[in-house]
Give the backbone structure.
Amino acid sequence: MGCFKLYQEASADVTILSNLFIDRYMKDANDAQLKLYLYLLRMAQAGCVSSVSDLADAFNYTEKDVLRALKYWEKNRLLALEYEDGKTLSGIRIPDLSRSLPQENPPQSSVAPLVALPQKTESGQDTPDFSKPAYSLDELKAFKEKEETSQLLFVAEQYIGRPLGPGEITTLLFFSDRLGFSEDLIDYLIQYCVDKGKKDFRYIEKVAISWAQQGISTPKQAAGLAGKYDKIVYTVMKALGKSGTPTRAEADFAMKWWKEYGFTQDIILEACERTVLATDRHRFEYADSILSRWHREQVHHKADIRALDDHYAKTRTSRPQPRAVPGNGSFNQFMHTDYDFEALEKEILSN
């Protein structure tokens, strides 16, 4: 990739980091995003020329890592990326955070928009942007002063059990402004998460984005979606030979495999089948050990499982076999019996 120039709207003899960045943006960024943003500030202040490959070499990242970090800051309106011929990155503008970013009628220029335009799907439809914007203090103040907002804040604080902080109120604004949730749906969302024992707003935000991606716009639709997820819980219960009402821990295991790991039902049931054949105790924990290992091995299809099984079988056959112990007693018979040592270990530890 070609080189690009960096320039900053604010000018100073030292590298200045805005308090707004520390208060609003720093906590949500990962290490790579933070390092690259701070490095760009330093380079821009010195008037240096750089490139994506230079940034990658400076921090031992891949060029894809660098581009992902740049896109992250562009979505948060802390960088504006300029392109030559619409393809090659030719410039990075770093806005001055001490001044409010333009909200309406931005001046026309060759600089790429601060908020990425919606991408097009294969059918030509716009893909909604569910990233959380950086709201100004005026926007947050206007939101808090709404009559319906004060009622929503009161209800949310009753569910959470404490006053909400500025970041959590900003998240509620995000639900209303960007996701288009009604007060009733936000109320149901918080109640739904709290009932599951989750009061962390990061978790609540993930659920909200998931609902928005699936077109949920009313509490009734959300309740129907929750019922759909309940179905996978009972399917897992049946597959593991359990009956009755699932405990919270059992439901959390099933939802972890289904939502967090993203496994399809056939993969989950494959793990359940292996669990039932291996043990009749602590089956959820045993199945979780299987599915966690498959998640680490990036299993997406049953064919991936077969490939792992084949690799494991080849590894076992290549190991030196233990020398037989003379005699025909029961101890000798024990040494020649194949056992699932992982299952045995779990059995011993559970006693």
Remarks:
- The first helix runs from residue 19 to 25.
- The chain has a mean pLDDT of 77.
- The domain at 3-94 is CATH 1.10.10.10 (Arc Repressor Mutant, subunit A).
